[in-house]
# Entry
Amino acid sequence: MTSVPLIQLTGLRVEYPGRGGDPVRAVRDVDLEISEGETLGLVGESGCGKSTLGRAILRITEPTAGSIRLLGREITGLRGTVFRQIRADLQMVFQDPFSSLNPRRRIADSVAEPLLRGRGASRADASRAVDELLDLVGLGRDAGRRRPHEFSGGQRQRIGIARALAPSPRFIVADEPVSALDVSIQAQVVNLLADLTRERGLTMLFISHDLGVVRHIADRIAVMYLGQIIEVADRDTFFGGPAHPYSEALLSAVPTLDRESDRERIVLAGELPDPAHPPAGCQFHTRCRYAVDRCRAEAPALRPIQPGRTVRCHLPLVPQDIPAPSTVTTGGTAQ
Ligand code: SF4
# Structure
């Protein structure tokens, strides 16, 4: 493992034209690092920008501004053959694997495609690799002769995972990979992803609206709201007690057996604001039960408050172990 992050995002922004001509900032100036071998869980409500962020890292959606580095190498502006080679290192597991599979092609051909195209493998090598992958994901190599419609949803997601793993990538974005599956199948697919990423030393961004699933697979958790990262924390730190009021509300909705059953369920007031016209100050202030005047006037910065935890809030919910910058530096500006 290297000390350089496998993925480093700096000021990453994705905008698209909204109704009435105002730009919608789906991803707002995201700074984030993912270490080699780590699984980062990315959570937030539907429409908060998490899928757009995942697609922007792989440049399926082109960022409007900012930087993406892979092991320190800037990949944001790369084009043509150079980017195609790097793209083989960056793969995606989609929510709906059917959308990435050609219904008329045999599974073996679909799984082999990223290996042939991205790595320039020979047909014979690709065929061997596909057999191994189909065994690895529990389908068996005979599955390669069949077509997508012959499989169940869980089996199709196993095919999606085999296809993503085919070019031996370094990094995988798994975008809600189990949310379309029956609950009984979800655990099997999550366990498969967890086992394969661990065995292969893979790094993963696991996107989900389901904190219960994320808790099972992620090493760290990042929470997104209206295109911004508002909390990042190690898994145990996060589930031990969230620091951001929005994280607190998300966590209060997760059913668990190990916590008191009468804990308060926090229901957020109102809808997610229009991303083309986000609230001034703290973007969450319109739904935050702790908001004070400062929150409406001043946007909080994402700042460290404890080892392994950063939060974008003037009034975090947990005690701060790290002194504010103004108390440890001379001439520094408190955030
Ligand atoms: Fe709530 Fe204020 Fe913190 Fe925003 S800055 S999350 S409004 S307490």
About this structure: DSSP finds eleven helices and twelve strands in the chain.
